[in-house]
């Protein structure tokens, strides 16, 4: 730490004052000792090992001491002065740190306490920097959450407004008897019903997302066969896949992989992944699900050979409310919460989910522990 000129002058003045006080203490102690020796000289004379010391001390002043004794006293004085100045220097360091902390507290979170510090003060300064970094990171995360909430309002408002407008429009025609025939009225009702189902999907996604994002979300663990579960999920999507000219295949290294997890939520994970593959894998013909046992984990890869996503999209797939198809058309309608929900469910099971593009395939890798008794 760089001392100011005022602080240096104060240290120099304190060194002089401390040296003067020490000299006065030496002088007082020596004079008291001389008075004691002179006053009670007969007592000292009785001890042979004092010799003529009593007489010598009585006739000698402090500055007349031998060089060795004088050097010893000077050394003690130097140590005392150094200790005193060291304490004062530490006080200046603390004042400097407090001033820097007040400056940071005013909102200058990118500022760091200047100077080099050692010992405990150095550890304190380092801890302060870590605390400030953590605070800044928490503030940035709070800003990202607020931004996500704003995006949620914008996206959901857009996705709900379109079907809601259609529902109000068609039901308004029926309410005002503006239809040509009963069959036309049924067509209006059917269209409004389909739009209402779209809105229900959006609301269900939002409810599911808020539920699985809670760290204390209850999980109902059961023992099941992962291979059989994936086969059942594939069957559920078989008809939709055929309509889009896709084939869903399952490849497993073993016939059976027993594990413990919440089957309802695990089904939701692979439901979202397959739905995502069918919705966005344009031009693809095959969705391949590869499952294998790796130590204490089960690894499942969901691959599709449709149109691959750019690198920047891969990096953002699991972000809240992100959609690779930016136009938000009704063909791919949704809140963009499907993969975020899948990630939250996997993390609740202490697993991981990642996305990558490999040799023309878009691949989602899910790794789950076989035993979830935590």
Automatic annotation (TrEMBL):
PANTHER family: SENSOR HISTIDINE KINASE CPXA (PTHR45528:SF1). GO terms for molecular function: ATP binding; phosphorelay sensor kinase activity. Residues 94-140 form the HAMP domain. The chain crosses the membrane at residues 12-33, 62-85. Keywords: ATP-binding, Cell membrane, Kinase, Membrane, Nucleotide-binding, Phosphoprotein, Transferase, Transmembrane, Transmembrane helix, Two-component regulatory system. Its main location: membrane. This is histidine kinase. InterPro entries: HAMP_dom (IPR003660), HATPase_C_sf (IPR036890), HATPase_dom (IPR003594), His_kinase_dom (IPR005467), HisK_dim/P_dom (IPR003661), HisK_dim/P_sf (IPR036097), HssS/ArlS-like (IPR050398), Sig_transdc_His_kin-like_C (IPR004358). GO terms for cellular component: plasma membrane. Its EC number is 2.7.13.3. It is a multi-pass membrane protein. It catalyses: ATP + protein L-histidine = ADP + protein N-phospho-L-histidine. It is found in: Cell membrane. Residues 155-372 form the Histidine kinase domain.
């Amino acid at each position: 730490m760089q001392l100011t000129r005022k602080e240096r002058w104060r240290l120099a003045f304190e060194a002089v004052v401390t040296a003067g006080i020490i000299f006065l203490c030496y002088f007082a102690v020596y004079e008291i000792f001389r008075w004691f020796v002179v006053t009670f000289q007969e007592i000292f004379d009785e001890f042979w090992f004092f010799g003529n010391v009593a007489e010598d001390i009585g006739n000698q002043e402090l500055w007349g001491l031998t060089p060795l004794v004088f050097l010893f006293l000077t050394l003690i004085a130097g140590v005392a002065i150094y200790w005193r100045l060291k304490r004062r220097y530490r006080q200046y360091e603390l004042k400097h740190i407090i001033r820097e902390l007040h400056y940071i507290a005013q909102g200058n979170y990118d500022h760091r306490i200047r100077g080099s510090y050692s010992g405990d003060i150095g550890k304190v300064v380092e801890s302060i920097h870590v605390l400030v970094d953590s605070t800044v990171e928490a503030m940035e995360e709070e800003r990202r959450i607020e931004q996500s909430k704003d995006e949620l309002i914008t996206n959901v408002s857009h996705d709900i407004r379109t079907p809601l407008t259609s529902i109000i429009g068609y039901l308004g025609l029926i309410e005002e008897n503006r239809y040509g025939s009963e069959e036309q009225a049924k067509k209006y009702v059917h269209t409004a019903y389909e739009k209402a189902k779209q809105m229900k999907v959006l609301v269900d996604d939002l409810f599911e997302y808020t539920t699985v994002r809670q760290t204390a979300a209850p999980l109902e663990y059961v023992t099941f066969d992962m291979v059989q579960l994936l086969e059942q999920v594939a069957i559920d999507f078989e008809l939709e896949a055929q309509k889009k000219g896709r084939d869903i295949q399952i490849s497993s290294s073993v016939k059976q992989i027993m594990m413990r997890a919440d089957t309802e939520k695990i089904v939701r994970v692979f439901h979202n992944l397959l739905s995502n593959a069918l919705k966005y894998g344009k031009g693809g013909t095959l969705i391949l699900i590869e499952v294998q046992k790796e130590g204490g984990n089960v690894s499942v890869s969901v691959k599709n050979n449709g149109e691959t996503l750019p690198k920047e999209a891969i990096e953002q797939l699991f972000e809240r409310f992100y959609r690779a198809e930016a136009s938000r058309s009704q063909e791919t309608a949704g809140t963009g919460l499907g993969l975020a929900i899948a990630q939250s469910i996997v993390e609740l099971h202490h697993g991981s989910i990642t996305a990558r593009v490999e040799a023309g395939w878009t691949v989602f890798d899910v790794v789950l522990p076989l035993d979830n008794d935590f």
